[in-house]
Amino acid sequence: MTAQPITVDLAANATPKAANVWAIGSGKGGVGKTWFSITLAHALAKASQKCLLFDADFGLANVHIQLGHNAERDLGTVIAGKVSLKGAVTRIEETGFDVVVGRSGSGSLANLPANRLMGLRSDLIDLAAGYDTVLIDLGAGVERSVRMISAQAGRYLVVTNDEPTALTDAYAFIKLTTMFDPDCDIRIVINMAESVREGDTTFQTLLKACQGFLKIEPKLAGIIRRDPKVKEAIRQQAPLLQRYPGCKAAEDVMAIAQRLRQG
Ligand SMILES: Nc1ncnc2c1ncn2[C@@H]1O[C@H](COP(=O)(O)OP(=O)(O)OP(=O)(O)O)[C@@H](O)[C@H]1O
Ligand SMILES: [Mg+2]
After folding, report:
1. Which mean pLDDT values do the consecutive 10-residue runs of the chain (263 residues) have?
2. Domains plus CATH for the chain?
3. Is the pTM of this model over 0.85?
4. By alpha-carbon position, which residue is closest to atom 23 of ligand 1?
5. How far apart are the CA of 106 and the centre of ligand 2, in A?
6. Is ligand 1 within 6 A of the CB of residue 234?
7. With a 6 A CB cut-off, is 224 part of the ligand 1 pocket?
């Protein structure tokens, strides 16, 4: 990994955290952040929570693609000043949660200057006051935009699988997050585990690195088993909990939602 200059976001550190805002990150791409964010939002909505999912993958937004939902208003229209962030909220009727969708391949979103990112973050925190939980689906990587948009999150959910690259990048994400916010609530989601036992071994590997080098002990949010139904649901652009509510991965995300609601 190439070293990148790190600047401390003073505005973020000076502002209190929004406890009901949870950022979902990973470092490595393709480990299941977007699918997990959608399914967790759905699970929370099923438990009668008022939930908003914010697509913060500014380069390759795809919450709306996985949901098969074409929104008239998206983050692009917000950045263009045509609509407020609140005005870009869309209800996904079949799931019962709200989304702010991104715009895939939008250079203007991917290159937002720091002041616009901070403005967007502040609007999101204001919007969060009207919800039980707000989930931020982060893009891959650990760049400035990923860190800035999530800097006031009350909780981080770091998604990884058992691949060495995914674990290394999850560790890098945790390291940078705790560097700026040493007391943050950070929890691990092991995705695509062949079994609960293998998922636990993967968690222990990451935990040992965090204990040894960072002197922190992130908790396990949960283990999600690899399940072919995930790909099938995505291919059909249908929420997993609607299409295959009894499958292994659905059960695992429902269990994670229940634990997270408990604190
Ligand atoms: N538990 C699972 N079992 C089987 N396949 C899974 C599981 N979770 C995710 N996948 C597969 O992983 C793919 C990538 O998922 P997703 O797009 O949510 O990842 P991502 O981390 O958001 O990627 P990106 O970093 O590109 O935004 C999905 O298309 C799906 O096929
Ligand atoms: Mg994604």
Report:
1. 44 70 95 97 98 91 88 87 94 94 74 89 96 96 87 96 98 94 94 98 98 96 98 96 97 98 90
2. 17-261 (3.40.50.300)
3. yes
4. 30
5. 15
6. yes
7. yes
